[in-house]
Every structure is written in C-alpha cells, then in structure tokens.
Amino acid sequence: YIAAANELNVRISLRQQLLALYTTLVLGLLAALVALRPEGNGSARVPVEWLALGFPVASLCLVLLNYKTERALTHLRRFLAQLEQIDNAHQQLPSYNSDPAWAADTNRTRRLHDFSAALLVAAAHAVGLGALWRIYPGHAGMDAPVLWVIGLSGVAAVAGLLWLARWSYRPAGTR
After folding, report:
1. Contact 29, 58 (CB under 8 A)
2. Which residues contact 77 (CB under 8 A, 6 or more apart)?
C-alpha cells in the first residue's frame, strides 16, 4: 500500500511539473518569435511559420501527457481502493480511495489543475497569435494556414484538457 501511495504522489508531482514545462516551452517560443523579428523595413523573410507550429506541438504534448498521468493516477487509485477493502477494512477505517465522498472532493480539487492547464494553453495560443499578427504582418494574414492551425489546435487542446475529468478515478459503483 505504501509503495502504491508513494507512486501516486510522484505522479501527482509530475503532473504539476508539466505546467512548468509547458510554460517554459511557450516562453521560449515567444522569445524566439521576438528575437527573429525583421529589422527596419522587414524585407528579410524569416520562416516564422515553422517556429509558430511549436505552439500546437507543445499543447498537444501537454494534453497527451496529462491524459497519460490521469490514466496512471486512476489505475493507482483503483489499486489502492482494492487494498483498502481487504477484510472489509474500508468499513472499519477511513478509506480515502474507497469512500465516494473523498473521491468526489479530490476530483473537484484536482479539476483546478485541468482548468489551469486549459487557461495556460488558451493564453499561450492567444499570445502566440498576437505576436505573429503584430510582429510578422506579412506572414500572418487571415488567410495564413499557420494562424488557423494555431487557433484551431488551441481550441482542441483546451477542449481536450477540460475533457480529462471523464477519466478521473471514481470508486466502484459511482460511475
């Protein structure tokens, strides 16, 4: 039980670190966009479209890694719930993973992580689009495919992060 509980804590910590990793990647992309801005008349053609595609890639990775972590957390909590129920111990002792009330409160609290991640993705895509639009007006017209890819992938990533709650752990019989 202790080893599984420790593994659960490690996975939760790693999930939190994903937000820092994502923020670092996005800030690096924004710094590169600003650093590559054209000098003077802006005649130099820099392929910022390729760099800008880093926003969707970073967001997709964040969604996939959060999904992986959510599945691992659910798996570990199911295992812990089974251990808590050996010899009906969950009826005599408080059981964090077996009691639906504890699980529901935990899921509501952990949902804040999903909201934070979704807000970060939305902000990152908005700032990235704004930087492209403002710094590279010749590259980023309304008909530029890269703008549509960044915008639509941002919406999809936000939706994916908000959808993760479907895979949160729920004790048996509470689906």
Report:
1. yes
2. 8, 97, 103, 169
Whole-prediction pTM = 0.85
The pLDDT value recorded for residue 163 is 94
pLDDT of residue 92: 80
157 in Cβ contact with 121 (< 8 Å): yes
Counted residue by residue, the chain has a size of: 175
> What is the percent of the chain where pLDDT is above 90?
47
DSSP string, the chain: -HHHHHHHHHHHHHHHHHHHHHHHHHHHHHHHHHHTPPPTT--S---HHHHHTHHHHHHHHHHHHHHHHHHHHHHHHHHHHHHHTGGGHHHHS--TTT-HHHHHHHHHHHHHHHHHHHHHHHHHHHHHHHHHHHH-TTT--TT-HHHHHHHHHHHHHHHHHHHGGGGS---TT--
Exposure on the CB side of residue 86, measured as CA atoms within 13 A:
5
Give CA–CA dist 80/131, Å, rounded: 47
- Which amino acid makes up residue 164? L
Side-chain-side CA neighbours of 173 within 13 Å: the count stands at 6
Q: Which residues of the chain are modeled with pLDDT < 70?
A: 40-45, 140, 173, 175
